[in-house]
Design goal:
By secondary structure, this protein is α/β, with parallel strands linked by helices. It contains 11 helices and 8 strands. The chain folds into 2 domains: about 180 residues, Rossmann fold, CATH 3.40.50.720; about 90 residues, N-(1-d-carboxylethyl)-l-norvaline Dehydrogenase, domain 2, CATH 1.10.1040.50. The chain has an 8-stranded mixed β-sheet with strand order 3-2-1-4-5-6-7-8, with helices on both faces. The longest helix has 20 residues.
Length: about 290
């Protein structure tokens, strides 16, 4: 039987754990699954730490914090999500991997559960094509860090039912987010606009018109919360590159979206940003 207060999340990476925090802080029961036990352990520790930080800052009461701590369950099996009202996929940005996961989820979740993807760039219509029940499928795209950023993109496919869209909007509002319904175009809204922020910054650095540090300082001085290179490090240089490649391909290799050799070199070297300890900047074990 489906539990309207139960949210399932598949993928214990940066985005999955952020979405989990947002849901727990809003009073939902959360199940988090991942094939890697080490990823689940790291995510669990991070989530509990962030809940305590939220309490110390007065964002959660002692009672809310305690309830949130006890409302989290983790497991390597998808069956942990069997009675969830909404299950959100947040795994690697790869169409085939996501399609394989959705095939398993459809056999596991409740008949009326929403199955959603947190993809940054992959077509929702394309992902829905192989589903047995596409009417309950859509994109619910959070932004990093998911427990802090207010905007959430809701992306229906051509076969998503209006009731599914309405439930997704209500869910986002319950999290205190600002949801917007976006058409299924490459990159949706924000990531399409953001490609110019990232790619042009890299081209400037490659041309040696300014250093990475100078570009970030100038953009932050202009009012951006984070410069493009700091933001890529936060998101994950590899994740950011995957999104750029996906948008570039979906726009039939339009030059303005073309990835750069600079970002590819960092990914090839394993310099993925904060999560690897080094990207365009170096970080301590606490991510600073």
């Amino acid at each position: 039987m489906m539990d309207s207060q139960h949210i399932g999340i598949v993928g214990a990476g940066t985005m999955g754990r952020g979405i989990a925090i947002a849901c727990l802080a809003s009073g939902f029961r959360v199940t988090l699954s991942d094939q890697q036990e080490s990823a689940l352990s790291a995510a669990s520790n991070f989530i509990h730490e962030q809940l305590d930080i939220a309490h110390s800052k007065g964002k959660l009461s002692a009672e809310q914090t305690q309830s949130a701590h006890t409302a989290l369950r983790t497991d390597s099996s998808l069956h942990i999500h069997a009675d969830a009202a909404i299950v959100i996929e947040s795994i690697v940005e790869d169409r085939d991997a996501k399609a394989a996961l959705f095939a398993q989820l459809e056999k596991t979740v409740a008949p009326n559960a929403i199955v959603a993807t947190n993809t940054s760039s992959i077509s929702i219509n394309a992902l829905s094509a192989s589903l047995d029940h596409p009417a309950r499928f859509l994109g619910i795209h959070f932004f990093n860090p998911a427990h802090i950023m207010k905007l959430v993109e809701i992306i229906p496919s051509l076969r998503t039912e209006s009731t599914t869209i309405a439930r997704a909007l209500e869910f986002a509002k319950q999290l205190g987010k600002t949801p917007i319904v976006v058409e299924d175009v490459p990159g949706f809204l924000v990531n399409r606009v953001a490609r110019n922020y990232y790619v042009e910054a890299q081209r400037i650095a490659l041309e040696r018109a300014a250093s990475i540090e100078q570009i970030d300082r100038l953009m932050e001085a202009a009012g951006f919360r984070m410069g493009p290179f700091r933001l890529m490090d936060l998101i994950g240089v590899d994740t950011n590159l995957a999104v750029t490649k996906s948008i570039y391909e979906q726009y039939f290799y339009e030059p303005r979206y073309q990835p750069t050799r600079l970002q590819q070199a960092y990914v090839d070297a394993g310099l993925h940003g904060r999560k690897s300890g080094r990207g365009f900047y170096s970080y301590r074990s606490d991510g600073q």
